[in-house]
Design goal:
By secondary structure, this protein is mainly β. The chain has helices at residues 19-26, 44-49, 99-102, 303-306, 327-337, and strands spanning 29-33, 59-63, 67-69, 72-74, 81-85, 92-95, 110-112, 118-120, 123-126, 143-145, 150-153, 156-158, 164-166, 170-174, 177-180, 182-187, 190-194, 197-200, 207-212, 222-226, 229-232, 237-238, 240-242, 248-252, 255-256, 265-266, 278-282, 299-300. α2 links the parallel β1 (29-33) and β2. The radius of gyration is 20 Å and the shape is globular. GO terms for molecular function: pectinesterase activity.
Length: 338
């Protein structure tokens, strides 16, 4: 696997995969979900419940168009699950859970605790009202990913504060859209975001895109954003804030609009964390990429320093990462396994 800037994800690679991944993909099963009652299930949760615990084969839950008001957990003993939607008419999974009701991380509409999860062409939304600074526990997560080796292709994550809890594990997001106001990507994951839009919803005095939770400098966590777009209005959005002791966030080859605060990064009023966080930028473009007013602890990475963050091997991709499923593939495996 090469550098993202130069080499696209191959659709033919299989030889380097871990054996359990290759075996899981050799026997693929499809479960259909449709709002109109023409499929096996009308609810995603019921389809998921039909999968055996300890499953070791890829199971594609093919979700028809429409809005599914459900709160779903893919529990840790249900690995190799794919949620697949129509790229031209994405299904919406929505729920209005808040921190006041469930605690922040468990407020998520979709919780993924299993390994090897794939989401493709789906919208995950938390429909709770926008936090107003007065209501306690108004944070509302759209998705929490706590399993390892999860992939998201052409997905949208909709919320305000704490939209995506990228909690722990290695994750890959490609061609996605994430919107929010404060800390709308947060957690301790080691994740690569490629060609994904981070959209700042205007209206708050200060916006923060990322709060990374690496707790010490030996930790493996860190978010790398490559060829992403930071969009919105207001010139008040920080690329990240110092949340935990050693948060690590890097933007490379990104288009940064003028929504970005000229200082770029926030120490969150904890000046001692300036020495321990790792906030990096490399070859970005756009009005928000002007570094002349950046905080002193932001790192402008050299070519050598940037290499680890712009490679698919940042997340050990050769062992597990597969191209996105297609409609043809879903139809094919559905026919041969029914």
């Amino acid at each position: 696997m090469g550098f993202i800037h130069c080499i696209p994800l191959s659709s033919q690679r299989t030889g380097s995969l871990d054996s359990n991944v290759a075996e899981a993909e050799n026997a693929v099963y499809v479960i259909n979900v449709s709002k109109d009652g023409t499929a096996e299930f009308t609810m995603i949760k019921d389809a998921l419940d039909s999968v055996d615990n300890g499953n070791s084969n890829r199971v594609v839950i093919n979700i028809g168009p429409g809005e599914y008001e459900e709160k779903i957990t893919v529990e840790r003993y249900k690995s190799y699950i794919t949620f697949y939607g129509d790229p031209n008419d994405k299904p919406v999974i929505t729920y209005g859970g808040t921190a006041a009701d469930y605690g922040t991380v468990d407020s998520a509409t979709l919780i993924v605790e299993a390994d090897y999860f794939v989401g493709a062409n789906i919208i995950v939304e938390n429909s709770a009202p926008r936090p107003d600074g007065k209501r306690k526990g108004a944070q509302a997560v759209a998705i929490r990913i706590s399993g390892d080796l999860a992939t998201f292709y052409n997905c949208e994550f909709i919320g305000f504060q704490d939209t995506v809890c990228d909690d722990k594990g290695r994750h890959f997001f490609k061609d996605c859209y994430i919107e929010g106001t404060v800390d709308f990507v947060f957690g301790e994951g080691r994740s690569l975001y490629l060609n994904t839009e981070l959209h700042v919803i205007p209206g708050d005095p200060v916006a923060v895109i990322v709060a990374h939770a690496r707790k010490n400098q030996d930790g493996e966590g860190g978010y790398s954003f490559v060829h992403c777009k930071v969009a919105g209005r207001g010139a008040n959005a920080y690329l990240a804030r110092a949340w935990m002791e050693a948060g690590r966030v890097v933007y490379s080859y990104c288009q940064l609009d003028d929504v970005v605060n000229p200082e770029g990064w926030s120490d969150n009023f904890k000046s001692h964390l300036q020495k321990t966080v790792y906030f990096g930028e490399y070859n970005n473009d756009g009005p928000g990429a002007d570094t002349s007013k950046r905080v002193s602890y932001a790192k402008q990475l050299s070519d050598d320093e940037a290499q680890d963050f712009i490679s698919l091997e940042y997340i050990d991709a050769a062992k597990w990462l597969l191209p996105p499923p297609s409609a043809d593939n879903v139809q094919f495996v559905s026919i041969i396994n029914r």
